[in-house]
Amino acid sequence: MAPFDLAKCARPNILKLQPYRCARDDYKDDGTNVLLDANENAYGPGLALNPEGALQESTVTGSSTGSSKPEIDFLGLNRYPDPHQVELKKLFCQLRNTHTHTQKDLGPENLFVGVGSDEAIDALLRCFCVPGKDKILTCPPTYGMYGVSAQVNDIEIVKVPLDVDNGFQLQPEKINEALAADSSIKMAYICSPGNPTANLIKKSDIQKVLEHPTWNGVVVVDEAYIDFAPEGSSLAEWVTEWPNLVVMQTLSKAFGLAGIRLGVAFTSPPIATLLNSLKAPYNISSPTSAIATAALSPTNMTVMKKYREQIIVQRDRLVQELPKIPGVGRFLGGQEANFLLVEMLDKPASEGGKPSNKTALAAYEAMAEKRGVVVRFRGKELGCEGCLRITVGTEQEVTKFLQELRVVLDGILKGADIQSLRE
Ligand SMILES: Cc1ncc(COP(=O)(O)O)c(C=O)c1O
């Protein structure tokens, strides 16, 4: 077991933090009290509501649900939301207590819920890293927000690349060397499935980092795309076995709820306590909490699973069809997310084409500017020369994407200038 000592790893000011308390932490709101404790507006939300508590139709552009009972309690919006979200946390535990990686059970004390997993990424930095002094380790190519959040917090980044010649797997031995050499590295961020690499990281490689003999730090596994990977892939419940493991997830991807901003971090109770102490007390809005709770019900999970199936069918279709387009090269990384990383070449593969950023950038711009299809150019990322990252869309969107890419690449490989591709 790694020599993890939270008292020496977390920032001293955070360890000493007395979290904000509200009067309702002491006197639960059972619906019968007169609530004059939080400077809310007792008359109600400043919204034109009909007697059922729904927004009046005329006030919502494009809404056709004005008279139906809303899922969201509009009438209750004048009150602050629940700062603890225990019921929502219990639902996440039910979802992830699969007993695949441990027989132990997650409980609400293992959880932090935030405004997307982006809040968890930032909260962890503020919990463990002293600005201007401490560092984090990342494994490029990887998700850009680790770097942005680190920079905002004045935290340096030590980079140990994924093995670009070997399917973008982790290099645990190199990571462990870097961690042994620098005790100011407080966290290692590992993305699994990776973005932009779409591959799961081996559990045994993560375990090698967790078993580091001397490093006193935290391993953060970002599982934003985990529900596109095979069943049982999530390591969320494994946090019950490791005091220094954090697993982040989000409702933004497979659950299709990027608009509500709900992310979650599973971890040991002492780390969860610190994260919950440092967060803004009312970070999860009542509508977000209501929709997230609904999303985890069996009926709504059935819809999520149906859409996920459809995405996987379209992902398989892209895997079949893309290589048939002249100028498309190999898929890099894996196929365990809702996107694919694919090379654009300077010549058709049959003529010995090589990955080309020039082709990829021209295709990216022509697709977006004249063909109405926006993908992501990733050719500047480590080991991603010539790559576009394609999110899997609906059947019609994939059809359009394939058609337009064929036209655009044909033009580029024939040497047409980008202006003519835009016509
Ligand atoms: C790897 C990864 N982690 C986290 C996020 C952020 O998710 P959220 O919407 O929950 O903030 C993203 C979003 O693209 C992502 O790709």
Automatic annotation (TrEMBL):
One of its GO terms (molecular function) is histidinol-phosphate transaminase activity. It comes from the Eukaryota. Gene3D superfamilies: Aspartate Aminotransferase, domain 1, Type I PLP-dependent aspartate aminotransferase-like (Major domain). Its EC number is 2.6.1.9. It comes from Aspergillus kawachii. Pathway: Amino-acid biosynthesis; L-histidine biosynthesis; L-histidine from 5-phospho-alpha-D-ribose 1-diphosphate: step 7/9. This is histidinol-phosphate transaminase. It holds the Pfam family Aminotran_1_2. Residues 60-404 form the Aminotransferase class I/classII large domain. HAMAP family: HisC_aminotrans_2. Its cofactor is pyridoxal 5'-phosphate. It catalyses: L-histidinol phosphate + 2-oxoglutarate = 3-(imidazol-4-yl)-2-oxopropyl phosphate + L-glutamate. Keywords: Amino-acid biosynthesis, Aminotransferase, Histidine biosynthesis, Pyridoxal phosphate, Transferase. Belongs to the class-II pyridoxal-phosphate-dependent aminotransferase family.
